[in-house]
């Protein structure tokens, strides 16, 4: 439930999760009592290899060890995914955990709508809550989380036992998409929402029309450019800011800053393509390569707002390939179970991939924790509803 709440709550909850995992999950495993179902997952070995590769770069990192270890700790939040899968050992446990998770996200969504309606929300701690209607984080993170919540509510509504609950899930989907597309200005959130709608439309089409469904993102985007002022304004702004960066290296804009981060990241990767500069080194290398030419506001930035480039700067091309392999294995592990879970998991992975293209999502605190918990919960449900696992459980019974 803590995901999406203030960072202090998230940090305490994450610490409790990882500490309790040592006693309730890892200790039985060390004694030889294995979770045979979880042993089928492909992502944990790849995840450990990726984190080990980043940890190895501590040997040559160009920043102080304390700073490097702090950055490695931010990457290590990925471990929440397999820990959650090991905790949730039955279909019922996974569904209960998802229900609490969704309930907390719905509270966040309704709080945001209260802000839109001008109703005082005493628990809203975001600095710009009354301007962009984000409750605890910023509009970028909340818009992505809300769009992802909308997809999960839509695809998993069939697991709800009563008709009114299923109708409520549809209402959550509508409110979530409306909040992302009509209220919040986050451009990445707009892209994620377009992807969520497009995937849902694609899966609703008959199989013989699936190829035509590939045009759904274009059609949805075109419609939103007509009906949504935030989408139209922010899309126009991207074009104008990108042109300004290309013509005169203008970095004092959101798009200009990102393009400058990416440019400096590619320069750094070009200098050390195989080893990188070590975990936690992005800020140092960005300031060195930028040499004060960019926006002074960004001199303290710790990531390039692109997950793949961050891994490349820190540990080279090999780390980028490991990240790609990890995302693929996470997707495959989400495809083990029943169709609604597979579709919810695929939607979450699509949201994560899009977000990683424009932000260092897994490195960032609140939104990174959100995706790790989301994927961990959906993977647990997918694994516990996999046909082979259900058959083995029934045979044992």
From TrEMBL:
It holds the Pfam family Wzy_C. Keywords: Ligase, Membrane, Transmembrane, Transmembrane helix. One of its GO terms (molecular function) is ligase activity. It comes from the Bacteria. It is found in: Membrane. The keyword Ligase applies. GO terms for cellular component: membrane. It is a multi-pass membrane protein. This is O-antigen ligase. It comes from Pseudorhodoferax soli.
């Amino acid at each position: 439930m803590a995901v999406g709440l203030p960072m202090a709550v998230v940090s305490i909850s994450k610490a409790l999760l990882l500490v309790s995992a040592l006693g309730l999950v890892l200790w039985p495993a060390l004694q030889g009592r294995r979770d045979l179902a979880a042993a089928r997952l492909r992502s944990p070995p790849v995840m450990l290899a990726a984190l080990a590769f980043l940890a190895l770069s501590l040997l040559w990192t160009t920043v102080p060890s304390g700073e490097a270890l702090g950055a490695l700790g931010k990457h290590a939040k990925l471990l929440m995914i397999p820990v959650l899968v090991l905790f949730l050992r039955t279909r019922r446990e996974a569904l209960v955990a998802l229900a609490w998770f969704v309930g907390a996200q719905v509270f966040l969504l309704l709080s945001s709508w209260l802000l839109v309606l001008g109703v005082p929300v005493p628990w809203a701690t975001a600095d710009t809550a009354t301007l962009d209607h984000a409750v605890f984080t910023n509009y970028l993170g909340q818009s992505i989380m809300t769009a992802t919540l909308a997809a999960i509510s839509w695809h998993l509504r069939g697991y709800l036992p009563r008709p009114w609950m299923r109708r409520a899930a549809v209402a959550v989907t509508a409110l979530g998409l409306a909040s992302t597309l009509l209220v919040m200005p986050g451009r990445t959130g707009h892209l994620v929402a377009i992807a969520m709608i497009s995937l849902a439309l694609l899966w609703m089409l008959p199989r013989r029309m699936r190829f035509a469904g590939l045009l759904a993102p274009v059609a949805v985007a075109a419609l939103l450019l007509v009906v949504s002022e935030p989408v139209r304004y922010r899309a126009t702004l991207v074009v104008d800011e990108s042109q300004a960066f290309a013509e005169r290296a203008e970095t004092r804009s959101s798009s200009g800053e990102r393009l400058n981060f990416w440019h400096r990241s590619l320069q750094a990767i070009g200098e050390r393509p195989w080893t990188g500069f070590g975990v936690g080194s992005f800020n140092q290398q960005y300031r060195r390569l930028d040499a004060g030419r960019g926006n002074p506001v960004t001199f303290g930035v710790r990531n390039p707002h692109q997950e793949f480039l961050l891994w490349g700067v820190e540990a080279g091309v090999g780390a980028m390939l490991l990240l790609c392999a990890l995302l693929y294995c996470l997707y495959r592990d989400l495809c083990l179970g029943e169709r609604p879970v597979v579709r919810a998991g695929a939607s979450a992975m699509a949201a994560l991939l899009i977000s990683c293209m424009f932000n260092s999502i897994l490195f960032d605190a609140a939104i990174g924790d959100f995706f790790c918990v989301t994927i961990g919960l959906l993977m647990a449900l997918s694994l516990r509803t996999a046909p082979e696992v259900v058959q083995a459980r029934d045979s044992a019974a």
